[in-house]
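Quick check before the chapter quiz. The format below is the same one you will see on the exam, so make sure you can read both the input and the output lines.
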Amino acid sequence: MTREQLMSKPATLSKLIVIGLLGALSLLLMEIRFEHREALGEAWQSWIPLVYCSAMLVLGAVGLTRWHRGGRQVLLLGFAAALLVGLLGLWFHSKGHPISGVLQVFAAWALRPGDSGGIKTGEPPVLAPLAFVGLGSMGVLACWWLLPEQAVQSLSASAETSKARLSSTGSRDEMLGNVIETTSIR
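Here is the expected output.
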């Protein structure tokens, strides 16, 4: 498919973006399963990203096949949920103190290489869950944005509605005369 063909069908471009995001979620699922291998037996919260990613992969397959029949809107809600998953992950990874956790990450830039800065090894990475916020926001944009193809479809539908109104109410000249009279009275 050439660039021109792809850009002439923006729904296809949105679907390709969603497919790419679902691929990223599948890789994230594998990585999180590995990184949470010990925590899965200790805390229920560590299951949240795994359940979300698994559900999104199933939802993604269904949503892509029914793109024009509500699938896009369902995927939009699914990607919006990623924002919540990412923020919850930030909260849990920072042990309920996201601001101090983020400041600690930024403070690491001032440390000499090899210095731990008092941070214990093996602590959960504070900013890692924000990957869900990034993927979710891209998914929301891909599913929400009124792309040119959709805009043209909605414009042509409104033009057809206007034509139907014109034919039912009289000629175009009569309607134009009514509009001019209405605006000149004001």
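If your answer matched, good. The two ends are 55 Å apart (CA to CA).
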